Amino acid sequence: MTKQDEIRARLEEAFAPTVLEVINESHRHAGHAGDDGSGESHFRVKIEAESFAGQSRIARHRAVHAALGADLMSEIHALALEISG
Q1: Chain segment 52-79, per-residue pLDDT in tens
Q2: Residue 53 to residues 35, 37, 39, 60, Cα–Cα distance (Å)
Q3: What separation, in Å, do the N-terminal and C-terminal C-alpha atoms of the chain show?
Q4: Report field, pTM of the whole predicted structure over 0.85
Q5: Three-class SS state of 54
Q6: Which of 21, 31, 43, 48 is the most buried (most CB within 10 A)?
């Protein structure tokens, strides 16, 4: 399973989002700091879920990071988040 697939699976399980896009942007950072050569180091996530309603931006980000888990987060150099509820 790719990291992109793993991100998608964990977020779907945790939040049952109405909108979820997981975009691998690693190719845009090839040769830059944080590029580990795997092609799976930089991601953008657009997610909308009812559970985010009423949460602050920081709380939303923390919830996503928790859902992804320390193991997966340690393998990702950059994660851009667009979260709405």
Answers
A1: 999 999 999 999 999 999 999 999 988 9
A2: 34, 37, 33, 9
A3: 28
A4: yes
A5: coil
A6: 43
